Amino acid sequence: AQPAPAEPTATPEPAPPPAADPCAGIGGDGCKFKLRGGPSFANNGGGELKLQLHFIHSGVEGGQPQGSYFVWMEKDGQKLPISDAIRSIALQDQQGTLGEYNYEVKIAPSSIPGGTVAGNYAIWVLDGNGERDSVTYTFTIPDGQGEVWMEFDQG
After folding, report:
1. Within a 10 A sphere around the Cβ of 84, how many other Cβ atoms?
2. Which terminal CB of the chain, N or C, has fewer other CB atoms within 10 Å?
3. If you average pLDDT over residues 106-113, what whole number do you get?
4. How many domains does the structure of the chain reveal?
5. CATH number reported for the structural domain that contains residue 118 in this entry
6. Does the residue 109 lie in any domain?
7. Are strands 147-153 and 49-57 parallel, antiparallel or unpaired?
8. How confident is the model at residue 31 (pLDDT cuts 50, 70, 90)?
9. What pTM value is reported for the model?
10. Is the CB of residue 118 less than 8 Å from the CB of residue 143?
């Protein structure tokens, strides 16, 4: 008598690929800063884009303001004219309409693509060497709401 043929064995399913790391391959320090607060908007008539950002480290003194950071910001894929000479100020908070901040930039509508503040934006944090320090965050500024506040935390 011959032995019965072996039953075919099920081929194991390959494991699903790991979730893509949003911080991988974006350059710089990847995701050192995370968006912790905002974006929040306030009405200023849309006469200018007033960006007030708070760069902190929540693991130091409950939210120590961090210095030398700045942002790259685009509207509809076009870079806004934000000078890299303007940097966040270490250890110093100011109180704004929407929250504490240590970085402020004001841009006239004439320097913004489309000539208006309202629209779709992308922003990411850069460190003192101009290296990327966050993923890209996108948001829409409503008409008339030209004041924008965001808090970035590296804790």
Report:
1. 11
2. N
3. 97
4. 1
5. 2.60.40
6. yes
7. parallel
8. confident
9. 0.83
10. yes
